[in-house]
């Protein structure tokens, strides 16, 4: 933080910077509103401009502390205006900074999957997320063609959770015209056929070894 952010960009308000980074860490896997963070910081009496926070969001990605992805949409303008999701570059470091929470397993698994997808990107590939009536965690596309869709769920045994993940990836499949569908889990494995779609449920350890 000090070498790549504070010293490089001459940031004097290090206390607010620490809080900003922790907020991004805590909001892992969710669309993040920089404007909402700004309002939170302002309500606590700290002086910081909204433009500075947007610059900091760029800085933390430029120094590879975070990776961020946009919402999937055919419109470039809508993509640029969409809320971004921020993923942290190291699960262990995040756990050392933040107190463990009850939903951390799912967040850390999704973060690990994003990091692995990012390592496997080819030139002209990109990762986005889908948000419509339902949600899908990751869309991997090459130029304009969608190559694969991924949901991430720690445990898919619960009936409600299972159906939510299936519904999200099927809706994204219909929107993107992609039938290469995966649900990455902690340790569940199965093949589901629903609505004419084949969904591969794969444990993360096995998927990452392929």
Please characterize this protein's 3D structure.
The protein has 210 residues and is of the alpha/beta class. It has a domain at 101-210: Trna Endonuclease, Chain: A, domain 1 (3-Layer(aba) Sandwich). It is built from nine helices and nine strands. The chain has helices at residues 2-9, 14-26, 34-43, 50-62, 76-81, 91-97, 104-119, 159-176, 204-209; strands at 31-32, 66-71, 84-88, 125-131, 135-142, 145-152, 181-185, 190-194, 197-203. It has a nine-stranded mixed sheet, with helices on both faces. The longest helix has 18 residues, at 159-176. 26% of the residues are buried.
Gross geometry? globular
Query: End-to-end span in angstroms?
Result: 34 Å
Along the chain, the helix and strand elements come as: HHEHHEHEHHEEEHEEEH
Characterize the biggest β-sheet. 9 strands, mixed
CATH class of the domain at 101-210: Alpha Beta
- What name is given to the CATH topology of the domain at 101-210? Trna Endonuclease, Chain: A, domain 1
Instruction: Give the percentage of residues in beta strands.
Output: 25-35%
User: Helix- and strand-based class?
Assistant: alpha/beta
Assign a percent range to the helix content.
Answer: 40-55%
Estimate the mean pLDDT confidence. 94
pLDDT below 50 for ≥5 consecutive residues: which ranges? none
Taking all Cα atoms into account, the compactness measure Rg is 18 Å
Work out the oligomeric state of the chains in this entry: single chain
Query: Please, how many helices?
Result: 9
Strand order of the largest sheet: 1-3-2-4-5-6-7-9-8
Q: What is the annotated CATH architecture of the domain at 101-210?
A: 3-Layer(aba) Sandwich
């Amino acid at each position: 933080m000090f070498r790549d952010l504070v010293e490089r960009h001459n940031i004097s308000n290090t206390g607010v910077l620490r809080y900003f980074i922790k907020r991004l860490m805590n909001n892992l896997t969710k669309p993040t509103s920089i404007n909402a963070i700004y309002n939170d910081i302002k309500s606590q009496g700290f002086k910081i401009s909204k433009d500075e926070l947007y610059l900091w969001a760029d800085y933390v990605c430029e120094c590879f502390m975070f990776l961020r992805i946009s919402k999937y949409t055919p419109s470039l303008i809508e993509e640029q205006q969409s809320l971004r999701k921020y993923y942290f570059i190291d699960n262990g470091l995040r756990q050392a900074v933040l107190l463990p929470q009850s939903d951390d397993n799912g967040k850390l698994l999704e973060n690990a999957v994003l990091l692995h997808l990012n390592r496997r990107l080819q030139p002209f590939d990109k990762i986005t997320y889908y948000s419509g009536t339902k949600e899908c965690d990751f869309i991997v596309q090459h130029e304009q063609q969608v190559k694969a869709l991924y949901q991430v769920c720690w445990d898919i045994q619960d009936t409600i959770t299972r159906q939510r993940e299936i519904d999200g990836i099927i809706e994204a499949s219909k929107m993107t015209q992609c039938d290469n569908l995966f649900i990455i889990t902690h340790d569940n494995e199965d093949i589901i056929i629903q609505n004419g779609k084949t969904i591969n449920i794969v444990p993360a350890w096995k998927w990452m070894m392929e």
